[in-house]
Amino acid sequence: MNPADAVARAHREEWARVVATLTKRFGDLDIAEEAAAEAVATAVERWPADGVPPNPGAWLTTTATRKAIDRIRRENKRDDKYKEALVFDNDPPEPLGVIDDDRLRLIFTCCHPALALESRLALTLRMVGGLTMPEIARAFLVAESAMGQRITRAKAKIKAARIPYRVPAAEDLPARVAGVLTVLFLVFNEGYLATGPDSDPLRPDLTGEAIRLTRLIRALLPDDGEVTGLLALMLLTEARRPARVSGGELVSLAEQDRGAWDTALITEGHRLVRERLAAGVVPGRYQILAAINAVHTSVRDSRDTDWSQVLALYDQLVRVDTSPVIALNRAIALAELDGPTVALSVVDRLEARLAGYHAFHATRADLLRRLGRGRESRAAYDKAIELAGNTAEIANLTRRRDQLG
């Protein structure tokens, strides 16, 4: 592997670990983030000349730690925090929490209820997911400058409120887990379909990390239906990754080679869905989404999909999640049962809320294409391409638009 690729891979795989380690050591997210970024920048300069180290993650952590101490020295912060940092290796180990995982601690810190929900999401994507500011801004459909201010305010709030860096006690976990699940789902989605035009179309590092951390939370709360539902949803979605991109182009669910799907992940996901059904408890958002994915992954040919069951599940989902994106996805299922005309009337009513969302225009373009309204379909495809950031998705949309003639 050439040095540039090694740096990129180390950044993807080790960012969260480096930031979490430095946050634990110095108790300051700003110091942790800045030092981690400086370490990556140093790797860009040195690895081509010195060679890729045997353990890139350890190299980044050591380098980032030195950068952090240098910053503290420069700022003359010779207080107890600085002294503790210098003699860290001589300190007695902390008592283990419910689960001793630095990245999980970092997530609970970033997802603390003292922070606004949008700040929790953005901060976790930056501090845990390692996404760049433009990528996070695209994920939230806001300006990059506004996103930067949001993250800066969130870190300042953590410092001012002395929000602790730890996994909550067992009795506090149920009240805190919902926000964490929201964040993990967003991290997973960024890996499932990356928003940044300069990143890989699919980011298995992010989907893998989201799944790993969701497994940890399930170990904490094995009876929480939404934790199990989210894990099942992630597994059934990740199972399709090997077939989702071909020749640099995103492949739709109906066109995917289902023989390439990961059967082990599908088996586990289906087992978890059945487990929640057997519990006899009214399902929440993630459990219903997992059930929808279970229907899609239970047949070997897309033509055999039970769309009536999919629509029934969406009807159940819209009662617990009023998001216009859910309504849009429901319309796609509606088109399979009642036709594109009925679905288009539903989609058009969502325009005011989804005008800046590329998938709205892509869905509308497909429905117009099916109705033979080529000029309108082309215009909708153009808008979807303009708003989309994922290179593989842009390639798919462009091909579909060009097929209109």
TrEMBL record:
Keywords assigned: Sigma factor, Transcription, Transcription regulation
Boundaries of every RNA polymerase sigma-70 region domain copy: 17-77
Domain of life: Bacteria
Domain DUF6596: 176-275
This protein's record includes keyword Flavoprotein: no
Gene3D superfamilies hit by this protein: 1.10.1740.10, Tetratricopeptide repeat domain, Winged helix-like DNA-binding domain superfamily/Winged helix DNA-binding domain
Keyword Lyase set for record: no
Name of protein: RNA polymerase sigma factor
